[in-house]
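With this grant's support, we have settled on a layout for protein records. An illustrative entry appears below exactly as we store it:
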Amino acid sequence: MTYQPPGSEQQPPPQPQPYAPPPYYAPVSPPASGASIAALVCGIISILVGWIPIVGVIGLFTAIAALITGIIGAQRPNGRAMAIIGLICGALVIVLWIIGVVIVIIAAASHTAAIGNT
């Protein structure tokens, strides 16, 4: 037996932990509805294509589709923000189309009036 000074008793080795605590996972939100995603995609396409002169008709149709799918998607709980953004994009393109058509009609009417007066 060896000499040990007082207060330096040998400590027993630490006991191993039985299991590590389970890792924390963030809660997964439910996926967005298909109508919300469709509204957002159609709204973005209508903004990108709606201002091109001949191809802009495709932008008008996608804007109408964005309005319809945006209204459907906004009524569902998942993906409401995407549906509203698509709805706004579609409405914006339709309003700009109406303003453009009115400007073209006024310009055509003033042009024909100017031709008729000469």
